[in-house]
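B., you asked whether I could sanity-check this one before it goes into the benchmark set. Here's the sequence:
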Amino acid sequence: MNTLIGLLIISIGAMGQSSSYVPIKKVKTWAWESFWLVQGIFAWLVFPYLGALLAVPEGHSLLEVLSSGDGAALKALFFGALWGIGGLTFGLSMRYLGVALGQSIALGTCSAFGTLIPALMVGTDLFSGKGLVLLVGVCIAIAGISVIGYAGSLRSKNMTDEQKKAAVKDFALGKGLLVALLAGVMSACFSLGLEAAEPIKITAIKLGSQPLFAGLPAILMITAGGFITNTVYCIFQNIKNKTGKDYFGVPSGVFINNVLFCALAGILWYSQFFGLTMGKSYFVEGSVMMAFSWSILMSLNVTFSNVWGILLKEWKGAGSKTIGVLVSGMLILIFSLILPNLL
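And here's what the prediction gave me:
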């Protein structure tokens, strides 16, 4: 029962993340770098900070929790900066491939690296016992994501240039694939950051934090690192493209509209890691489900992002065969989620 509760909580968070790119479509006149930076303030600073406060026991401070663990916070910040490169290119993959295909490829790569590398770092044998179950689960998840990627290539072949532009304004398959793969590899650093920040979680629990929230301070340090990377790039683009006026050179109504939708996108995006942290607290420590939790989150993100892709008509005109392949890939992903719990 606890495992099912954990999966449900992670699913709710994944649904939120997959929905986070919908509010951005309501942002008016701002350049990409402008709305990406503003939503990042909410997604990577404001809401992670508020979440981290939930883990601070009475009579203690957040600084006290973060200063534990022999530099664990700085390690998490470092991996967060690397992850920030992935987050940056992740946004670009949405721009060039759309919500469905962009997230599928980026998150698929992220799922594999983010699950297997931490397992190897702690000496897990991937060819026997728990390690083999983990490897099989990841392979099935990647297979499902590959099928979805194939559906995307079929869509590209079957759609006219006008249909591609109508579905995704800046559609560019070749450029988008390269960006999405880079996004996936670098985004896996988030999972490495969670491993590096484990001492922070342990300290929080020792001080009296509820296990449900104990991992949230680590999330703050990782997202703060990502915020640094993204801020540098976005401000550079603001200067290069002369888009700095976006923040204050628009009518007040447009500014308020944009900030509100960026804030909505930010909290929806953060919900995936809020849900992951809470959901993992229901898994048995050291179990396959615990080790597979990162892949579970990524697979759910892919599944829900493709549901949004269908609702947003990104697959309009793709043909029944293509949609059938897409649905098959989503079903394989769902199967990968329950397999480790069956073995």
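One thing to flag: Residues 27-342 form one domain. Otherwise nothing jumped out at me.
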